[in-house]
Every structure is written in C-alpha cells, then in structure tokens.
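Long-time lurker, first post. I've been practising inverse folding by hand and with some scripts of my own, and I keep getting stuck on stretches where the structure tokens seem ambiguous. Below is the full token string for one chain I'm working on. Before anyone asks, I'm not after the true native sequence, just a reasonable design that respects the backbone. If someone could post their per-position residues I'd love to compare against what I wrote down in my notebook.
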C-alpha cells in the first residue's frame, strides 16, 4: 500500500529547495518515476493520483511548474537497469523508484541524482543505504520492514482451520529472504505448513 508519507517525501525532495529559496528557478524541475509495474497497475494509479493531488495543493502543475517523466518495466525486472540509465541520461532532478529492484537499478545508474525509494523491503541488505538512521549517499525514502509474520497471524484469524499457507515471493527482491524467514517462523508457531513459490514475472 502506498502511504501518504511516501507521497509527501517524494514531493519534499523535489520542491523543498525551491520553496526555501522563496523564488522560482529558471529551470523547471523534472522528476523521474521508475516503475516496475505497468501503467494500468492499481497501486501505481493510486500513487499517481495522490501525488498529483498533493502537487496541485502545493500549487504545482505538471507541464508548467514541474515536468514528470515516467518509465515502466511492465513487470519485467530485466528492463529496470536500461530504464534507469535512460532516466539518468535525461538529467532529471530526482528519481522516485518503487521497491528494492527499481531502487537498486536507479542507484546503479547514478550516484549523483537524488533517489527516493518507496517501500524498499531491505535497503540496507540490498546495499542501497548504509543504515536506516544514516542512509548516506544519494538514496533516501521509505522502507516496509518485513510484515510476513503479521500477515500469517491475520490469515490464521481469518481462516482458523487452515493447515497450509501458500506464499508468493520475488527471489530477486533483497527483502525476500527476511520476509520468508519471518513467515516460516510464525508458521511454525501456529503449526502451519508454509509453501513458498517464487515468481519473477507478471505472467507467472
């Protein structure tokens, strides 16, 4: 779920310098979005809607006060690196990347353009930041620490007679390992059989 905090953070990185100076810059700021999903993905549409609404509330209009560029991997992780390099080459002022895979691709593409990661599972383990307290480098943003255990507990409450639980994970995501460990440990507490299935493409 995309939170309001994520949206505000992305906006803050982009517009804060302009607001602090008290006057518009001659160059129109450009923000690049690197999406793993396709353009019609529900969560993507939700984020875009919230982002546009907040920009409007701050008095910014896409195409006038700022310029937004987007790249879509259409669910294919292997496309992220090329798309990230394309955004970096276009000289955007900030890159917003969703999850670890897109954030890692953006980080590999540039060490100078600010990167806002949104819901990165394990940014420290992925080498995106030095630590949560002191990220360092050009990457900042939000992380969703493993909620695997909580999800198992919720499923147990919803289906108390369940004996087996299937879990879909993306093995290329740096947060997958800690997520699976959390799920397995919680599953053992409830005597559940956990079946982990790896999925790397939308088609899977």
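-- Answer (accepted) --
I ran through it position by position. Result:
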């Amino acid at each position: 779920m995309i939170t309001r905090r994520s949206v505000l953070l992305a906006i803050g990185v982009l517009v804060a310098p302009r607001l602090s100076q008290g006057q518009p810059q001659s160059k129109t700021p450009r923000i690049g979005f690197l999406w793993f999903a396709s353009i019609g993905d529900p969560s993507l549409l939700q984020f875009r809607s919230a982002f546009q609404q907040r920009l409007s509330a701050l008095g910014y209009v896409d195409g006038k006060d700022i310029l937004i560029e987007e790249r879509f991997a259409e669910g294919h992780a292997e496309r992220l690196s090329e798309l990230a390099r394309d955004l970096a080459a276009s000289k955007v002022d900030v890159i917003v990347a969703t999850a670890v895979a897109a954030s890692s691709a953006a980080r590999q593409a540039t060490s100078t353009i600010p990167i806002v990661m949104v819901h990165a599972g394990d940014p420290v383990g992925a080498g995106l930041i030095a630590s949560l307290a002191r990220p360092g480098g050009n990457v900042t943003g939000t992380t969703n620490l493993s909620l695997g255990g909580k999800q198992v507990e919720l499923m147990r409450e919803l289906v108390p007679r369940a004996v087996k639980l299937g879990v879909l994970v993306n093995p290329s995501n740096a947060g997958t390992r800690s997520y699976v460990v959390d799920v397995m440990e919680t599953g053992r507490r409830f005597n559940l059989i956990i079946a982990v299935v790896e999925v790397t493409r939308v088609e899977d």
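A couple of notes from the structure itself: The two ends are 22 Å apart (CA to CA). Residues 18-23 have pLDDT under 50 and may be disordered. Happy to go over any region you disagree with.
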